[in-house]
Amino acid sequence: MYYKKVDYKNRKACFNFLANHFTYPTLNSWNGLKSIANNVKVYNLPIDSNDALKALEEDNYFSINCAIEDWNADHPGYTVGFNGRLCGYLVLYSSNHNGHCFKGEESPCFYDSYEDWKEEVQEHYLTLKNFDSILINEVKIVQEFDQLCDQLIEITKALIAYIHKREALTKPYNATLRFQRYYYDTVEDLKLHMLDMKRRGYSVWEYSDTELYAEYEMNEAIHSEIILDEEGDEDFVYA
Asked: What secondary structure, in 3-state letters, does the chain show?
């Protein structure tokens, strides 16, 4: 969804890729500080937004955050993080600069015109060729950032698939709890609880003053779930 191929031998193609990439104002829209970013709000992604939110919240964003941390560790000098009022944008920063991902003013990210950019680069680097390695490195960093955003979509899809599989192997059931045994610290506790249970309509099935227990006939419906294994056999019960 986000990753785009770029011809590294075509300088203008590299410029256009960086200059036209989506950016996000990292502090305020009026201060001019912006950085390479992607809009990752769930309703913009090729997945059901309700399923995505449910899966991410159940996972507590653990898988997403681990992938981002791994990317940051593999790219010293750069950091990826969420931004926006609802954290709907994933932004690429320079680790040592809060404004944008590339420090140099010659980065194509800050130019609308290819001709203006060429003039600026030639003034500082004498020839465009001297800047090529920096340009290609910037393109590759942004491509790897875009690949990370695609990876996060795949992680979310996997979380959704896991939930759907689990739900498919789950069936609800209603059961009647016939008897419930309680144990007590003293005879007085036992007698008080027996009186209370009788007032609430439960029958005393049996009790012991010496072993300090009482068993009641409950006749109370409960709801639970049976988790089936992949062959459809009952595996275990969540009470």
From this structure: CCCCCCCCCCHHHHHHHHHCCCEEECCCCCCCCEEEEEECCHHHCCCCHHHHHHHHHHHCCHHHHHHHHHHHHHCCCEEEEEECCCCCEEEEEECCECCCCCCCCCCHHHCCCHHHHHHHHHHHHCCHHHHHHHHHHHHHHHHHHHHHHHHHHHHHHHHHHHHHHHHHCEEEEEEEEEEEEEECCCHHHHHHHHHHHHHCCCEEEEEECCCCEEEEEEEEEEEEEEEECCCCCEEEEEC
Q: Which two tokens stand for residue 183?
A: 């144990």
For the segment 103-119, what is each residue's pLDDT rounded down to a tens digit? 667 788 878 899 999 98
Q: For the segment 135-174, what is each residue's pLDDT rounded down to a tens digit?
A: 999 999 999 999 999 999 999 999 999 988 888 876 666 5
Which has more confidence, 6 or 235?
Answer: 6
Cβ atoms 55, 159 nearer than 8 A = yes
Centre a 10 Å sphere on the Cβ of residue 226 and count the other Cβ atoms it contains: 15
Question: What count of residues does the chain have?
Answer: 239
Q: For residue 237, what are the β-bridge partners?
A: 226
What does pTM read for this prediction? 0.70
Residues 149 and 92: beta-carbon distance below 8 Å: no
Distances (CA, A) of 133 to 11, 14, 138: 11, 11, 9
